[in-house]
Amino acid sequence: MVLHTRFRAILLTSLLSIVLVIALVLSGTSWLALHQDLATGITYDLVLLTPLLYFLLIKPTQIPTTTVVPFFGLMLLVATYVLPAHRQQHLALIKQFILPIVELTVLTFVIYKIRKVRKHYKHNIANSYDFFTALKTALTELFPPRASEIIAVEFGVIYYGFVAWRKRPLKTNEFSYHRKSGTVLLLGVFAFMVVVEAFVLHILLEQWSIIAAWILTGLSIYSLLQIIGFARSLGKRPSVICPDELRLNYGILSETTISLAEIASIQTLPQTHKITYNHEVRSLSPLGEMEKPNVMIRLHNKGELTTLYGFRRSYHTLYLYLDTPQEFVNQVNACLTNKDHTPPFHFFAR
To answer: What's the predicted TM-score (pTM) here?
Structure first.
């Protein structure tokens, strides 16, 4: 059975490689300019045959079959790049009729997965529904892990910056970290600096190149939108004490989950506490020393901190800032002293 599986994988990988190599080699020859049928064959080999071979290759594996969608998109880009413009008639038909169907299917699937995850959260009253977590869960089934993290951040910026305006009161197991820290004000200063810098540089670059000036302005607008999304996500993703774990968030910028059984100690910090960050001592906030933490958590074993775009950092000691640090520490300690880790509070809004 193992030999059969290996032979199948080798065969399909070889076929996929042969089809790709032949299509790419032929696309660089003069024959392509002379024969429309050759261009048609390359089009369907790249856009339809290779995704089919890829699907057959990954079907027995743990790779999500939904990754066929981004693979199809990649092959579409390759075909667009390697085929001459006057030989893309069939490619244009695929883009016009098949691509919209694929895009609509993907959008429907993502919405369905988000609703499913949301429903799961609602059934478990101990867990607060979190759009960003649901979004990443849905995208993970469509894209590789790093790609899903990147796409989730881009969607998250739009959602938290311009869609999620409705206020939701905190539950007793949820803790904010943005009201007293001054982080939102700091991000506001960054946003103001981006606007001023974009205005000044646009005027200067316009004298040299109008295109370059508008490209820089576009990048500045994109950066401004990201800062707005980051700032607003701070108030929408509180840190949460769950029955068996802590879900510590810092907007969509960073997050970590800590099992209560892994906590060696937790305490509030005095203002005079000195911190030296290294590969074992991390801050939940990406601002690091710019934000003075007031809670310290030490673990028995290493934890994992997920930062922007899915980058991961290990730690043994984690520092974080909370608006009500003593209440947080008291509730966590109460959970730790309770053998079944049942939080000693009710999940009602405060």
So the answer is: 0.67
